[in-house]
Write a structure and sequence with these properties.
This protein is mainly α. Helix content is 79%, strand content 0%. The longest helix is centred in the last third of the chain and has 38 residues. It starts with a helix and ends in a 7-residue tail after the last helix.
């Protein structure tokens, strides 16, 4: 297991370099001169544009710019915002707690609701409980998150007045955005849990356990869930990534000062250092989550060997 973990950590290095290259090329993929885009509607002289290019480091060869960019990443120096002139790391540090709070709450809701609905649906297969749970799952998968977020605001914040509409701070302001993110992710998870549990329930060792007189709940806890969790844990990792991408829309709708809102604001004003830093940061989280998912396979099932 230790050798596998070390090997997987080493394999993340080229992945991180590939991500850094793609993120770096974002600046050069934008149509037009980034210096002119930065100047906006201002009437600038060629000398002023040359100064902006030097200030942004755009007057050097692309290879040199990339090496400088990678060097600054390892020093955790992602540059300064083109508009606020605040270091990008400070901008991210001021926003990350809000996004982490939202992602953790939504993930906890999605996992709890998805597993409970999936297991209940599998145990009561072909009953009205199964139909109701899977109808919820299909509706959740098909529902756009921006529409659900606005409906939650309209019903619970505006019409009933139970929760604040927007902002950050406290459980009351966290509940609606976490509910919007968590409901959609739980729908996908519930469908997978149902199919995985049904597949394991049909295996011979479950039939043997029943023939020995074991209670259904003991069979479920000791034999079914542990074996059914292998594919579930994979989707849970993917769902965490979905929550990060969905948080961009959710934080914008609920005006939460998180990473998603920071990214949208940076895109609107073409603040390239901030855009690059946020995309790089989220991509690194994806890599870390995938690594943790792979490691968890061996912890859940000792029969799995990493060769």
């Amino acid at each position: 297991m230790l050798q596998y973990i070390v090997r997987r950590l080493l394999l993340t290095i080229p992945t991180i370099f590939a991500i850094s290259l793609v993120v770096f090329l974002m600046l050069h993929a934008v149509p037009g001169d980034p210096a002119i885009i930065f100047a906006g509607d201002k009437n600038v002289t060629p000398e002023q544009l040359a100064f902006v290019r030097r200030d942004m480091g755009l007057d050097r060869p692309i290879a040199v710019q990339y090496l400088d960019y990678v060097t600054r990443i390892f020093r955790w120096n992602l540059g300064r915002s083109l508009y606020s002139r605040i270091p990008v790391t400070m901008e991210i540090g001021n926003r990350i707690s809000s996004s982490a709070e939202l992602a953790a709450a939504a993930f906890a809701l999605a996992v709890t609701l998805g597993i409970v609905l999936g297991v209940i649906s599998a145990l009561w297969r072909s009953t009205w409980i199964d139909v109701a749970a899977m109808s919820f799952a299909i509706t959740g998968v098909s529902m756009p998150i921006f529409w659900l977020a606005q409906m939650l605001i309209f019903v619970f914040a505006i019409h009933l007045g139970w929760f604040p509409v927007t902002g950050d701070g406290g459980l009351s302001r966290l509940f609606l955005p976490a509910l919007a993110l968590g409901l959609i992710s739980s729908a996908t998870l519930a469908r997978l849990v149902r199919s995985s549990v049904l597949e394991v329930l049909a295996l011979p060792y479950v039939t043997t356990a029943r023939s020995k007189g074991l209670a259904e709940m003991k069979i479920l806890a000791r034999h079914v869930m542990k074996n059914a969790f292998i594919p579930i844990i994979t989707v849970m990792g993917l769902q965490f990534g979905t929550l990060l991408s969905g948080a961009v829309i959710t934080e914008t709708v609920f005006a939460r000062p998180g990473m998603g809102k920071l990214l949208i604001d940076a895109i609107l004003i073409k603040d390239f250092p901030v855009i690059q830093a946020v995309v790089l940061f989220v991509s690194l989280i994806y890599v870390l989550v995938n690594l943790l998912v792979d490691i968890s396979y061996g912890l859940l099932d000792p029969r799995i060997r990493f060769d």
